Amino acid sequence: MSGIYDLLVFAHLLAFTFWLGADLGVAILGQAFRDRSKPLEVRLEILRLLTVVDMGPRTAWALMVPLSLTLVKAGAYWDVPLALVVAAWLVAGVWLFLVWAAHLSGPGPRAARLRQIEFWVKIAITVFYAWLGLSSVLGFGPLVADQWLAWKAVVFAAIFVAAIMIDVAFKPVGPLLGALIQHGSSDATELPLRKAMDITRIWVWSVYALLVVVAYLGTVKPL
Questions:
Q1: Per-residue pLDDT tens for 62-121?
Q2: Residue 133: which residues within 8 A CB-CB, separation 6 or more?
Q3: Could you report the per-residue pLDDT of 150-191, keeping only the tens digit for each?
Q4: Measured between alpha carbons, how far is 143 from 134 in angstroms, rounded to an integer?
Q5: Total structural domains in the chain?
Q6: Handedness of CA 157, 60, 214, 198 (dihedral sign)
Q7: Contact at 8 Å (CB) between 118 and 93?
Q8: Residue 187 CB contacts under 8 Å (≥ 6 apart), including other chains
């Protein structure tokens, strides 16, 4: 069992590293896109690359759910029902399908429908982790014996909230970007787009901060 546990820890750390590392790449590309001194064609190519790089964190995020529950079971922190572990992997598979199908579909109604389904999948998972963490912190959940793990579940739920808010805040960017492409760069097209992206960046940096907290709780185990 120790070998399986160690392998799961490695996979968990690998997913975390890929999530945070690639997310920083997204932030750097996003900053480069905001540079109005660059030709619009160059900025649009940067934005295209941003969406490609962003698939790394989105993939890692989906995999974190079944990995975390499997790791908790393998480490004997909670005797997670086997049906729940299997369900977690199935949900992650559906989530990954939705993420990649929407990405490969490009802009359009099909991608919008897929993202709407994904949105509700993420809401359901957020509720699960919030229940798991908060119930354990309050003394009656399955992780009550390991408070560091209970708080990790709470913070993971908070990461879901912040990441969902990234997508919510980013919604106006599509039409604003279309206006920029159609009418060219000017204060009238650039400033509303910049404002929408600035609001999105607040949630992006929130995710980064919460990921650091999760890493601290998981490695130091202070509680």
A1: 999 999 999 999 999 999 999 999 999 999 999 999 999 999 988 888 999 999 999 999
A2: 141, 143, 150, 151, 152, 153, 154, 155, 156, 157
A3: 999 999 999 999 999 998 998 888 889 889 888 888 889 999
A4: 10
A5: 1
A6: negative
A7: no
A8: none
Residue partners of 145: CB distance under 8 A and separation at least 6: 77
> Are 84 and 142 spatial neighbours (Cβ–Cβ below 8 Å)?
no
Long-range contacts of range 113-119, CB-CB < 8 Å, 24 or more positions apart? 115/167, 119/164, 119/167
SS3 34: coil
pTM above 0.85, yes or no: yes
| Domain housing 40 | 2-220
Tell me the residue type at 34. Answer: R
CB contact at 8 A, 78 and 143: yes
CA gap 40, 165 in Å, rounded: 27
